[in-house]
Amino acid sequence: MKKFLLPLFAIVAVMFMDSCTTSKQVPYMQNIDSISLAASQYLYDARIKPKDALQITVHTTDPAVSSPFNLTVQRHLGTDGSLASSGGMLQSYLVDNDGTINFPVIGRIPVVGLTKKECETLIESKIAPYLAKSEKPVVTVRMSSYRVTLIGDFSSPKVVPVTTEKMSLLEALASGGDLTLYGKRQNVLLIREDATGKKSIHRIDLTDANFINSPYYYVQQNDVIYVEPNATKAKNSALGQSTTIWFSFISISTSVASLLVNILRD
Question: What's the CA gap between 236 and 120, in Å, rounded?
Answer without folding.
Answer: 54
